[in-house]
């Protein structure tokens, strides 16, 4: 779990007597590539993830999480080195969910692709213009109802 500041608690490997409860460590800040007042990026480590803990200026009273690590039990989303040209941000549903959301970018020559997967809903909000250009074919499949509302004119050329 995390607090209102995005801080989490950890179970250190050397803490053999730790109970893996809310008293196991102090709250640790989580490093982000971009953080501002009510904007930025955030990815809170989840229970079971291995994290890399850094101590500001070497001070053990100022720990922070600078990243998460893959290992033999927490494997990468796609096998390596076979998928070394693939960049992925893939999440898992909360405990018991069984699904995921994903943004995947494939840069392998001849197989370039941007893939988006929404486990449930996908909402878009464009405040001004939206333009879409498809250089070849486009296929749309809607398995239930489809609704379109135009509050002005529609033009076809």
Automatic annotation (TrEMBL):
Belongs to the VgrG protein family. This is Type VI secretion system tip protein VgrG. Keywords: Secreted. It comes from Pseudomonas prosekii. Residues 3-70 form the Gp5/Type VI secretion system Vgr protein OB-fold domain. It is found in: Secreted. Residues 87-157 form the Gp5/Type VI secretion system Vgr C-terminal trimerisation domain. The lineage of its organism: Bacteria, Pseudomonadati, Pseudomonadota, Gammaproteobacteria, Pseudomonadales. Its main location: secreted. GO terms for cellular component: extracellular region.
